[in-house]
Structure formats: structure tokens, C-alpha cells
Design goal:
Largest interface: A-B, 45 and 55 residues
CATH architecture of chain B: Orthogonal Bundle
Helix content of chain A: over 70%
Radius of gyration of chain B: 24 Å
Order of helices and strands of chain A: HHHHHHHHHHHH
Largest sheet of chain B: none
Oligomer: heterodimer
CATH superfamily of chain A: MetI-like
CATH class of chain A: Mainly Alpha
Distance between the termini of chain B: 6 Å
Structural class of chain A: mainly alpha
CATH superfamily of chain B: MetI-like
Number of domains of chain A: 1
CATH class of chain B: Mainly Alpha
Number of strands of chain A: 0
Distance between the termini of chain A: 43 Å
Shape of chain A: globular
CATH architecture of chain A: Orthogonal Bundle
Order of helices and strands of chain B: HHHHHHHHHHHHHH
CATH topology of chain B: MetI-like fold
Number of domains of chain B: 1
């Protein structure tokens, strides 16, 4: 390849990227979603700077179930902890679980879908049968029965990379049960990519199957994976919140779902403590809506056919 | 057609088989002697003889594959799901059947209301794309779609039960009251209102999104332009062409959705202390009552598979192109 072709290639890529960014960022939903997301990512990154260390029953500073005041902007919980403090620290837990689970789900889904689509025949048959099972069974239902058993086997003690093992179990279980949707989309895309001439050219040039998949097919799948990845995050947040609400979270590292579970067992709803159950729920709603909006905007940008419909 | 139905049936059976096998694996992974675990829920003190009987019964001395798996599957097929750990001496199948009606009432009513409101609103929004109603409905349903139903339930309790005092926030009946049939029914309906609303609101969001998308796709089709060119009025176009075609994806979603509806109802039941499958799930989770948990998993799996079966068959009936 001569130098000028390389330059024009990279210039073409830059232009495509600029085009994409212009369209994506011009999307009202994407702007709103990104704005909210940045806010929550900052919270998750530096909770200690924003609200100090996580409060526990021992170093709680307020009254029991006190309504919002200038001292406690979002009121306090049943042992006097500041709800704002809990919610900001919860952002780190909830977002970490959702994002890591999504990474696992995308890796498994892409691998399965790409392998099935590329090799076809019996590989495709068997992998798709497996995918069908995970597609039909909701991640939440599977996680509901798998998580408690794995927790019992693993035990709840110790820490892995600063996170409690029970959170890791939830991450892995959600990730391993929510990939089917990605696998199906990746497979159908791979089926059409496989027939393109540039794949034949790579094969003639002596590339191995693995190298064709990684270097030629995978880059072309990025748009689909990105758009659906955003939706997978929203789904993961939903599942994590529901599981934690049913008591599978870790009270020592409370996510938003765990906070809702604590609020429920403290009788916050019948005590009228709207701030206690309102704050974590609103966070779940905002973050999950942001990812849905971003996902839709990405889909619109990558998929010109659907852009006709407002 | 028969070939297609055969394939659908085989897929359903394979899925159910995988659910049962997952149950089997999970029960064997739990630390502890399976024979003791199986007897953990029996009412009487466990003797060595009983443990031996369980070993015989489940073939625990024989190889794991295929003997034990086959035994387990055949027991499951006969409705033998073992004893509950928490409710000592009770069969899991009995416990689940006891709790099922409360969940069916809750989910059935919520599903009915959600279909009525969600589908109508969604179809209308798709028909009049970009209008005021469309914008409000789309925004609201996206928000509802991203909200866990149980949180909606908690908010409803705060507003309608605690603050306004209009409706009861938990339970099925007012305790202690001896009242006639009619008053009793009214009391039950008042208890149903908030949990049904919580489940229904989440579903409405979903149905609006799908019905709107389906209608939007139909409106841009060529046959709609033809219909207009023929001089059909808006109403005629809607009834004869748009409605029928837009209903296809909606019917599929509503049927396929059953598993998610029941799953969502589990958390909502936890909020309202509703004595259904969800309530049972929470109790089983807290007590680590694995047999009950696996029984519920089997029930959910079966209902999801049946729903899928119905969706596939309904699709064949509704869409002549699939029938071939």
C-alpha cells in the first residue's frame, strides 16, 4: 500500500467518524442521555469527594427517617444514614455491575453469534439451539434460581478487586444469561458479511478463519454491537435492581436495588418516607432511560432506513 | 403446516428439558449430601434408614449420568418436586398450586388492562405520528419501560395509601372483618387496585412502544398509498388495512411477554405482601429453600414455553405467508 492510499484511507475514516458524531450528537435523545450519563459517571468515579465516605449505622449523622432538610438534602434512612450519601455511593455499585455484566454479555454474544454465522452448518445449528434457550428464558428468571446456589457455593466473605464476591456472582450470572439477543443479531449480520468479496479476498490472501473473523468481520459488526450494547446495559440495570430488591444484593456495598430493598423492609412506603425510596428509584429510571435513548439514537444513526420514521 | 407444528413442539420440549436439567445440576451443586437435602423438609426426625431409602429412591449410589438424571426427570414429569425446606413436611407442588390463583388474578387483570390501554394508545400514536398524543405517549412509555414495576408500586403506595388513604397498601383482604359476599368482593378489588396498577403500568409502556412501531411500519407501506388512491376514507383504511397488519407483531409480543409479566409480578408481589408466586419466591429466597425455588423456576419455564408455543401457532393462523 503506498503512502497516499493510507492517508486517504485514514482521511475517509476521520470524515466518516465526524459525520457519525454530527448525526449522533444532533439527536435530542442522545444529548439528554449522554448528559445524564456523564453526571452519574462522575458520581460513580469520585463518590468520596462528593459526599464523603459511605455511611454505615455506626457513623450515621442524622435522625431516623428524617425528611429532606438543608443538612440532609435527600433526608435520612431508618438508621439515620444520609440518603444522598447512599445514592451517590450506590451509583458506583450499580453502574459497575451493569457495565461489567454488559461486557461479559457482549463478548459471549458476539463470539457465539459470529462463530455460528461464520462456520454455518452443524456449528450454527447447535449454537443457535443453545441461544434459543437463553433467548426464551428471561435473564431475571434464570438469575433468580442460579444466583442463590452460586452464592452458597462461593460463600460471601472476602473481597475481589474491592468488590464483595456476591456482587461478582451477580455480574457473571447476569452477563452469562443476557447474551442471546446480541448473538442473534451478530449472527444474522455475519451471515451477510461472509458472502462479501473482501472476505473472499482475505481468504485467497491466506488469512486464517480466526484472523478473518477478528480483522475483517468484527470491525463491521461494531455498529450493531454498540447500539444493542446500550440496550443490554439498560436490561442489566433492570435485572440487577430486581435481584437486589429481592434480597440477593450485598448490604455492605448497597446498589440502588439494595437500597430499595432496605427501604421496603424498613416500611418506608407506609411511613410516607418518599425521599428514601424515591431517590434510588429515580436514579435507576434516569440511568436506564439514558441508555435506552442512547441506544435508539445509535440505531437511528447507523440504520438510515429507519430514520425516515420520526 | 404439520411439519412446522412438529418443529415448534420439539423446540418447546427441548427447552423444558433444559430447564429441568439445569434444576438437576443446581441441586447437585449445593453443598451437602443430596440424600440429606432431600429429607431436610420432611416433618419427622431423619433416621439412617430413611436416608438409605432416599438413596435407593433417587439412585444416589448409581452413576450421575444417565441413571440419576433419568430418575429426576421422570419424577419431575410426575409432578414430584420434593419437600420444601421452609414449610416442613409440605410438598413443593402443593405449595405452588396453593399460591398460583392469587398470581393468576393479579397478572390476568393487569395484562387485560395493559392490552386494552397500551395497544389502543400505541396504535393511535403510530397512526398519528408526531401529534401531541404521540409525543406524550412515546415519552411516557419510554420512561415507564425503563422503570422497575415494583418501584412504581412503592410510589403508588406512598401516594394513594399513605398520603391520601384511598386504597390499602398491602394484603388481599382487610383482616378481621366479617362481611357479606358483595362487600367482601369490593374489599378484595380495593386491595387489588394498586398491585394491578403497578404491573399494568410497566406493561402499558412496552405495548405502546411496540404497537406504535408496528403501526408506523404499516402506514409507510405501498398498499396504504394504494388504499388512499382508491379513495378510501381514513376510517376505512384504518379498519381494513392498517389495523390487521399492525396487530401481527402486537399479538406476538403480548403472548411472548407472559414470562416477563410473571417475572415482573414477582417483585410487585413482594411490595404488596401479595400471597402469590412472588410472595413464595421471596420467602424461599430468604430461607434458601431450593426445592421451592426450583419448582417456581420450572413453573415459570413451563409457562414461558407454552406462551411461546401459543405465539408461534397464533402467528401461523394470523399470517397466511407463514402457513405455507
Amino acid at each position: 500500500m503506498s503512502e497516499s492510499t493510507v492517508q486517504s484511507l485514514s482521511r475517509g475514516r476521520t470524515r466518516a467518524l465526524k459525520n457519525f458524531l454530527r448525526q449522533f450528537l444532533g439527536h435530542g435523545g442522545a444529548q439528554l442521555g449522554l448528559l445524564c450519563l456523564v453526571l452519574f459517571l462522575v458520581m460513580a468515579a469520585v463518590p468520596n469527594i462528593l459526599v464523603g465516605p459511605l455511611q454505615t449505622a455506626i457513623n450515621a449523622t442524622g435522625d431516623f427517617l428524617a425528611s429532606p432538610s438543608s443538612q440532609h438534602l435527600l433526608g435520612t434512612d431508618e438508621v439515620g444514614r444520609d440518603v444522598l450519601n447512599l445514592v451517590v455511593h450506590g451509583a458506583r455499585i450499580s453502574l459497575t455491575i451493569a457495565l461489567l455484566a454488559t461486557v461479559i454479555s457482549l463478548i459471549v454474544g458476539t463470539t457465539v453469534g459470529m462463530t455460528a454465522g461464520y462456520f454455518g452448518r452443524w456449528v450454527d445449528d447447535w449454537l443457535m439451539r443453545l441461544t434459543d434457550f437463553f433467548f426464551v428464558m428471561p435473564s431475571f428468571v434464570l438469575a433468580l434460581v442460579i444466583t442463590p446456589v452460586v452464592l452458597e457455593v462461593m460463600g460471601r466473605g472476602g473481597e475481589i478487586l474491592g468488590f464483595r464476591p456476591s456482587l461478582f456472582v451477580i455480574i457473571v450470572v447476569i452477563g452469562m444469561t443476557s447474551w442471546a439477543f446480541v448473538a442473534r443479531i451478530v449472527r444474522s449480520q455475519t451471515l451477510s458479511l461472509r458472502e462479501r468479496t473482501f472476505i473472499d479476498r482475505a481468504r485467497v490472501a491466506g488469512s486464517s478463519n480466526l484472523s478473518i473473523m477478528v480483522r475483517h468481520i468484527l470491525p463491521n459488526l461494531v455498529p450493531q454491537i454498540a447500539a444493542n450494547g446500550a440496550l443490554v446495559v439498560a436490561g442489566a440495570i433492570y435485572v440487577e435492581t430486581s435481584l437486589s430488591f429481592l434480597g440477593l444484593g450485598d448490604p455492605l456495598q448497597p446498589s440502588w436495588g439494595t437500597l430499595l430493598s432496605l427501604a421496603q423492609s424498613a416500611g418506608a412506603a407506609s411511613a410516607g418516607a418518599w425521599w428514601y425510596l424515591g431517590a434510588p428509584g429515580l436514579c435507576v429510571l434516569t440511568v436506564s432511560l439514558s441508555f435506552v435513548l442512547i441506544g435508539n439514537a445509535l440505531d437511528d444513526t447507523f440504520n438510515p432506513r429507519r430514520r425516515v420514521i420520526p | 403446516m404439520t411439519h412446522r407444528i412438529g418443529q415448534i413442539l420439539i423446540r418447546a420440549i427441548v427447552t423444558l428439558l433444559m430447564v429441568a436439567i439445569l434444576n438437576f445440576i443446581l441441586f447437585r451443586i449445593v453443598p451437602g449430601d443430596p440424600a440429606r437435602l432431600l429429607l431436610a423438609g420432611a416433618r419427622t426426625a431423619v433416621t439412617a434408614k430413611q436416608i438409605e431409602a432416599q438413596r435407593q429412591r433417587w439412585g444416589l449410589d448409581r452413576p450421575l449420568i444417565p441413571d440419576q438424571v433419568v430418575d429426576y426427570l421422570s419424577a419431575t414429569l410426575h409432578g414430584d418436586l420434593g419437600f420444601s425446606f421452609k414449610f416442613r413436611g409440605r410438598y413443593v407442588a402443593d405449595l405452588i398450586l396453593e399460591r398460583l390463583p392469587a398470581t393468576i388474578v393479579l397478572v390476568g387483570l393487569a395484562q387485560f388492562i395493559a392490552i386494552l390501554c397500551g395497544v389502543v394508545l400505541g396504535l393511535y400514536a403510530g397512526w398519528r405520528r408526531g401529534g401531541a398524543i404521540d409525543q406524550i405517549a412515546t415519552g411516557a412509555s419510554l420512561a415507564l419501560y425503563s422503570t422497575p414495576s415494583f418501584w412504581v408500586g412503592m410510589l403508588l403506595v406512598v401516594v394513594f395509601s399513605t398520603a391520601l388513604g384511598w386504597l390499602p397498601g398491602y394484603g388481599v383482604y382487610s383482616p378481621g372483618a366479617t362481611i357479606g359476599f358483595f362487600d367482601g368482593l369490593l374489599d378484595h378489588l380495593r386491595h387489588l387496585a394498586l398491585p394491578v396498577a403497578a404491573v399494568a403500568l410497566g406493561l402499558i409502556g412496552q405495548y405502546v412502544v411496540v404497537a406504535r412501531a408496528a403501526m408506523s411500519d404499516v402506514v409507510t407501506e405501498d398498499y396504504m398509498v394504494t388504499a388512499r388512491a382508491k379513495g378510501l376514507t381514513n376510517g376505512q383504511m384504518l379498519v381494513r388495512h392498517a389495523f390487521r397488519n399492525a396487530m401481527l407483531p402486537v399479538v406476538t409480543l403480548v403472548t411472548l411477554n407472559l414470562g416477563y409479566v410473571v417475572a415482573g409480578a414477582i417483585t410487585v408481589e413482594a411490595v404488596f405482601a401479595w400471597p402469590g408466586i412472588g410472595g413464595l419466591t421471596v420467602e424461599a429466597l430468604n430461607a434458601r429453600d431450593y426445592p421451592v425455588l426450583q419448582g417456581i423456576f420450572l413453573l415459570l419455564g413451563a409457562s414461558i414455553v407454552i406462551a411461546n408455543l401459543m405465539a408461534d401457532l397464533a402467528y401461523g393462523l394470523l399470517d397466511p405467508r407463514v402457513r405455507k
